[in-house]
Amino acid sequence: MANDGTTLDCDAILFDLDGVLVDSHPLIERILRAWAADRGVDPDVAVAASYGRRDIDLVRVVAPTLDAEVEAAWIVEREERDFTGVVPIPGAAGLLAALSSARWAIVTSGTRRVARGRLRAAELPEPVYMITAEDVIEGKPAPEGYLRAAELLGVAPNRCLVVEDAESGVRAAEAAGMRCLGIGTALADGGIGAALDAWATDLRSIDPEQVTAEHVRLNIHPNGSN
């Protein structure tokens, strides 16, 4: 993992949503803690296991004796109508504004209604292509979502750069044969670093040096100075 600044060239950028483009973690945590407390699940375990996972996959992990579809529907129903406190990650609006609409997509573990609501709440644009929980059979860390996004953009997987804040997403990018830029403190340390091509504190650390109709070159400044 790079520490002193890196230049990355790619033909498309595939963004995770929560924790990468929008800060929705306080909202997600509030909903999950309410669900977990009502089901006799350790709330801390539920929150820790949620990052990068679809709700149905989360239930299967932390509460395997419960009906995953029923429980996920309870969580999703609340996620689809509550967007209190959702804000953009610092630097998100500027970076997306610099990119051509043909050069980026979102791959999220949330539903389409959740993703659209959080983008609206954060006043960020919706991409042409957005892969959500309904679009895949297997969620992250399976590579299906990222491979589907690359296909829709018409870009080879090895020419895509994934931007992720969770280990499951990094593993999905790795399985898809894509490079990965880690964002945030959760990926700053630990064994996952070997799977990252670069790391930065947030999107303010990313300088889109060159953006054309078919190519993007990014300078990554891990400490936030660009």
TrEMBL record:
Signal peptide: none
A Pfam family annotated for this UniProt entry: Hydrolase
SUPFAM superfamilies: HAD-like
Gene3D superfamilies linked: HAD superfamily/HAD-like (3.40.50.1000), Putative phosphatase, domain 2 (1.10.150.240)
Annotated GO MF terms: sugar-phosphatase activity
UniProt cross-references to NCBIfam families, sorted A to Z: HAD-SF-IA-v1, HAD-SF-IA-v3
Protein name: Phosphatase
Native species: Embleya hyalina
